[in-house]
Structure formats: C-alpha cells, structure tokens
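Quality-control log, excerpt.
Job 1 of 2 completed; input and output follow.
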Amino acid sequence: MRRRAFVAGMAAMMTSPVAAEAQQAGQVPRVGFLANTRSPGTEAFQRGLRELGYVEGQNIIVEWRLAEGRLERLPDLAADLVRLKVDVIVAPAPPYVQAARKATAAIPIIFGLVPDPVTMGLVTSLARPGGNLSGLANNPVEVHGKRVELLKQAIPGLGRVAILTTGGGDDEVREVERAATSLGIQRDMVTVARSDEIDDAFTLMKAKAFGGVIEMSRPLIYAHRQRIAELAVQAGLPMICSARESVEAGCLLYYGASFTDILRRLAQYVDKILKGAKPADLPVEQPTKFEFVINLKTAKALGLTIPPSLLARADQVIE
C-alpha cells in the first residue's frame, strides 16, 4: 500500500506544473556568451536572436560571462561555460576566442571580429573551417592602412601620429606603420594596458603634440570608447577609430565594418548550430559592407575643416 502511494505521489509530481516546467527548461538550448562588458554589440546579438524567433528565458537561455575589464578572468569564465555544458559558446573577439578554445575542443565556438582566422590558426580554411570553430571575420588587414590614408586626407598637413593600442605588434599595427611610412608620416606607439592608464595616455599625446591618433581594434579600447572619444577632443587630437560605435561617441572618423552588424549576424550561426549544423561545415563569412563616417560636430570642436571631397565620400556625416 505504501509502495502504491509512493508511486502515485511521484506520478502526481511529474504531471505537476513545476515538473512540467523543469522538463521544458531541460529542452531549452543554452548559449554561452563570453565578452568584456555589455555593449551595443551584445545588444545587437540579442536583436539577432529575436529576429530569428528566440526569446531569452523562454525558448533560449543565454549565459553571460563578462570580464568587466579584467581580461585575466577569461580562462575561468570560459571554463565555467564548459562546466555548464552550454550548447554553443559565442566569443566575439580574439581574446575571448582564445580563452574559449583553450577551455574546450568539443563545444561549438562562434567567433567574430577576427581579422584573419586562418593565420590565427582558428580554422583550416574559410570555406571549410574544420574543428569546432567558425564565425565571422572582421576588417581585413588592408582596412587599417586605409584608415591612415583617410586621416591624412582629413588633415593634409599631418606629419606625426600616435598609434593607440594595448601592447604588442601584430599584422594590423604593421599595416598602419607601412601606410604611415608610405605617406611620410612619423608614428609612435602609445600603449594602454589597463583602463586606468587611458587618461595618462592622452595627457602624453597632447604633451607630445601629435597631429592625430590612429586607434587599434582592441577589447579594452572598445569598452572605453566614450571616454576615449571625449579625451581625444579635450586634447585637441583628431582620431580615426576602430569601431563604428566610437564615431557616434564623438570620435572624428571611422572606416570599416560595423561591429554591431557582425555581432547581430553571429546569432545566425548560433541558430544553425542549434538546428544541428557543425562548425566544421559552416564557412567563415567576411564583412561585405564597409562604412566611412565623419563626425562633423567633432571636427568643429577641433577647429578642423574637412575637405569637401572627403565629405562627399562619406556614407554618413554626423552633425
């Protein structure tokens, strides 16, 4: 009798709303998102999910793991996502990709904002990635040289620039140096390894009377784009930025692909993975649309007159 009552009780529990919810929750796909902070990029990814019919907390769960400026935490954050057995990890920039890659060779990893995933060893080829990684590449290296040319055209007398980065040389920095040399522009590296070094960096650049700043694409720089744009104006330094969102924050110029568009498109890869596709079979996509944006309000604050020929080439002029 007691056994029958126990079995009946268990059956009642399994048909109760709580049990039903638990069963349903077990079927909801779980996506890990490894990044630095919440940003327009993370919002774009969420928008991409909604466009595909996903609603967080209902038919998809996103496990956000954010370093909040402490990139040394990335290995632990990536390991936490692996422990949770998420279905796929989204790693929107190289530091996050590397952390996720070291944490797992089994869970699919979707990357973005990677200039050359083949050279980085993330994929075998763009058409057939192989392994557990695929995603969207970022601006090709040549874009960084084009930024030097555009800054020179905006400031015809430009003779010396600062390359704002977070340390170390790579193909992007070398392309900037190559373009600067070909245009007869002197350049110096200005490094900010931590957020508390940003203000001092602009004090230094102002004291050295640089004619302009070329910003490299780095997670730390992107995370503090608003402050960096403000400091550049305060220091009287024309700057060409590495993100579309930075020129909206007050940077003078931007040329390249849209970070938010790339991150929105990452949701499409997640959708394909959740429907059974393998990263090894998903070709890496390249940006197809490049934008040139001028912040005319910033130009006026800097006392610059942008040549009409350059204004005519802009896809957008912010006034």
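Job 2 of 2 completed; input and output follow.
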Amino acid sequence: MNRSLARLAPLAVLLLVAGGCKGSEETPTEPGPTQLVDTFSGTLSLNGAFSHPFTVTTAGSMLATLIVLKPADETLPPESAVPVGLALGTWNGSICQIVLANDVTKQGEVVLANSTAVGDFCVRIYDAAGTLALPQAYQIVVDHF
C-alpha cells in the first residue's frame, strides 16, 4: 500500500499546483497617451502678434484656451479687454502656418483642432482688427498629446 501512495503522491502535488495556477481573465492593457499641457503668456500691443510653438507626440486633439485676457495696466477694469485673434497651426521652425483661427476670441474661449500626425504645432495670438488701444496681458493654455 505504501507503494501505491508513493506513486500517487507526485500526481497529487501536480494537481494541487495546477489547481493554483488559474489563468488570468484580464487582458493586459497598454497605457494610453499622456495628455500634455503647455502654458504661454505675454503682453499683446496694437497690431501685435506672438506665436508659441509646441510639440505633439501622439495624434489627437489640441485645445487652445485663452485663460487670461485683460489690460496690462492693473488699474483698468478687466472688462475693458477687447477680443483678439487666437489660432492653431503648424510650426516650421520660424513661422506659424495658421490652420484654424478665431479672430474675435474673448477670455475663456477656445480653438479646437485635431492632429493626424505627430510634429511641431503652434498657437498664435494677434490683434486681428488693430483695435487694441492699450496693451493686453494674456495667458494661453494648450492641451494636447
């Protein structure tokens, strides 16, 4: 009888080990792309413009938001700010080639675009109508991948 138990012992151990190795039903997931945020600020004057380049590492959406637009002179009320132009485009190293633009952007408004490839892009702010009587402080936030 001891021989029968001795022969069955390895089989019992194998069954115990195999029973503990349950296959995982979860499918491993790959991490998604990381959303990046770039912030740009400055002061815009009459007929002025500024281009700010950024790099997109994964195709997807780009959202430029004009977070702050107010007179640079802190003694003036914020509501005296006038609309400006805000645009998204491609950057070639020195020039922002505008693709989407809003020429009457106010504080809190956005320009939304989609990139189909990775690369260098830009956000541009400008005095679209030449109506800035006084310099305007601005801050732009661009969300992208």
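Post-run check on job 2. Residues 11-18 have pLDDT under 50 and may be disordered.
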